[in-house]
Amino acid sequence: MLWIFYALVKTGEGLLISINAAGCVIETVYIVMYLVYAPRKAKIFTAKIVVLLNITGFGLIFLLTLFAFHGETRVVSLGWICVGFSVCVFVAPLSIIGRVIKTKSVEYMPFTLSLTLTLSAIVWFLYGLLIKDKYVA
Fold first, then answer.
1. Residue 132 DSSP SS3
2. Count of CB atoms situated within 10 Å of the CB of 14
3. 8 Å CB contact between 75 and 10
4. What is the mean pLDDT of residues 54-72?
5. How far apart are CA 59 and CA 89, in angstroms?
6. 136 CB contacts (<8 Å, ≥6 apart)?
7. Gap between the terminal Cα atoms of the chain
8. pTM of the model
9. What is the pLDDT of residues 71-129, one digit of tens each?
10. Exposed/middle/buried for residue 86 (C-beta within 10 Å: 0-12, 13-18, 19+)
11. pLDDT at 82
């Protein structure tokens, strides 16, 4: 959602909007499927997290960037916020590295997740270079 907001604020970024909108749809389907099949306690916890992060977190960022910043400053500040969240997404799987080092086994390292995140990062980097947008790259 943040990248869609960034693309809307920047203007002229139709491809960025459509790619991230498709990602939002896929993520929503995934969360709904999880909520359908998860145990009750997990459903409640997940629903709270979704509300907290998506509604409250995005709402605060939306209001802050909409009213506190104007023009190019809005694009720059929103770009850095998006970069911060993207770094968190791509770095999160590295938290398992400690366990891999302790056990000297890659049993706990999800290969497909590592591969797809690496490929995704490369593609976004190349796309960012192509459109000359340092925040996307």
1. coil
2. 9
3. yes
4. 91
5. 20
6. 16, 124, 127, 128
7. 18
8. 0.84
9. 899 999 999 999 999 999 888 878 888 888 888 888 888 889 889 988 999 999 999 99
10. middle
11. 95
> Amino acid identity, residue 26?
I
Q: How far is CA 33 from the centre of its chain?
A: 19
Q: Are the C-beta atoms of 43 and 32 separated by less than 8 Å? A: no
| Length of the chain in terms of residues written | 137
How far apart are alpha carbons 48 and 50 in whole angstroms?
A: 5
Q: Chain-wide mean pLDDT for the chain?
A: 91
Assigned token pair, 31: 């969360």
- Write down the pLDDT at residue 55: 87
- Which residue type is seen at 95? S
- The CA-atom distances, in angstroms, between 130 and each of 86, 121, 133, 134 are 19, 14, 8, 10
Write out the two tokens for 40: 């009750």
Confidence of residue 41 (pLDDT cuts 50, 70, 90): very high
Angstrom distance (rounded) from CA 55 to CA 63: 12
